[in-house]
């Protein structure tokens, strides 16, 4: 398991059948919650992107990890029992996956990302021009 997998299917295929089943269920859940999002491997794990990173999920020894931390105030109390290091979520395999909570998290992230594009696009247009200006003024 040294090299990063090229696809989400390859990532899932690396695990035992019981973990593969969890990963497939979570994959279907996040895809349904964000049907317009692009699925890819990022940081060596499955991820969805729509106006930025929506969610990453990964299999660990005793839990499924969900990243990044939840910042939606309406969800903070619900995710508190699953909070791991740095606010990332850890869903133990010994418990049923909270699919409705995962759906709510993904939908909140999609809404949060959708509120950001105007600010991002303003920076992304200006940044290359500023870099070019700095290069032209370099000694």
From TrEMBL:
<feature type="domain" description="YdhG-like">
    <location>
        <begin position="20"/>
        <end position="110"/>
    </location>
</feature>
<dbReference type="InterPro" id="IPR014922">
    <property type="entry name" value="YdhG-like"/>
</dbReference>
<protein>
    <submittedName>
        <fullName>Uncharacterized protein YdhG (YjbR/CyaY superfamily)</fullName>
    </submittedName>
</protein>
<feature type="region of interest" description="Disordered">
    <location>
        <begin position="115"/>
        <end position="139"/>
    </location>
</feature>
<dbReference type="Pfam" id="PF08818">
    <property type="entry name" value="DUF1801"/>
</dbReference>
